[in-house]
Amino acid sequence: MDIEEAMGKLIEPIQKKMVAIGFLIEAEAKRNCPVDLGRLRASITTNWSKSELGIRSGKQFSLGPGINVTASSDGVGEPKAKENEFVVVIGSNVEYAPYPELGTGIYAEGGGGRQTPWIYPIGDGFRWTNGMRPIAYLRRAFEKYRSKIMNLGKV
């Protein structure tokens, strides 16, 4: 057995655990996510890759050393793995996914939301709003399983 084969035997179980934790985070995010018609919940998926496939841009959140989360308004795309990396991405390709995650209007994280109230159509009428508070459905799901992620390499 050469060194590459030995490394593969050590790394493969960790990669399988990463994907399994990804599915746990996906399920929790679906439980946390707000539901109107169910489109957002149904769109949350887990993808993984060992190769260079490209990931769409979005707002990065650091959740600790080497742990970053991207909230992307144009979808999660495909995971981007550099040489000798394995990447698992959990997210949604629905264009409005960042709004319940990050909030809108005066409640938007980082203060980047609209600061004046607005009206939008709903049903047969209209609704007046200052925005929506962040629900953080995906980040809360990640936090629930953070310890499992941090302990992946431990035997």
C-alpha Rg (nearest Å): 18 Å
Tally of individual domains: 1
Oligomer: single chain
Task: Assign a percent range to the helix content.
Answer: 25-40%
- In total, the number of strands is 6
The number of helices is: 5
Structural class estimated from helices and strands: alpha+beta
SSE order and pairing:
Blueprint: H1 3-32, H2 39-43, E1 45-49, E2 59-64, E3 67-71, E4 87-91, H3 98-102, E5 118-122, E6 125-129, H4 137-144, H5 146-150
Antiparallel strand pairs: 1-4, 2-3, 5-6
Overview of the molecule:
This protein has 155 residues and is of the alpha+beta class. It has one domain (3-102, 135-150). The chain is built from five helices and six strands, in the order H-H-E-E-E-E-H-E-E-H-H. It has helices at residues 3-32, 39-43, 98-102, 137-144, 146-150, and strands spanning 45-49, 59-64, 67-71, 87-91, 118-122, 125-129. The chain has a two-stranded antiparallel sheet with strand order 1-4. It has a two-stranded antiparallel ribbon with strand order 2-3. The protein has a two-stranded antiparallel sheet with strand order 5-6. A hairpin with a 2-residue loop joins strand 2 (59-64) and strand 3 (67-71). Helix 1 (3-32) crosses helix 4. It is elongated, with a radius of gyration of 18 Å. Mean pLDDT is 80; it is low at 52-67 and 71-75.
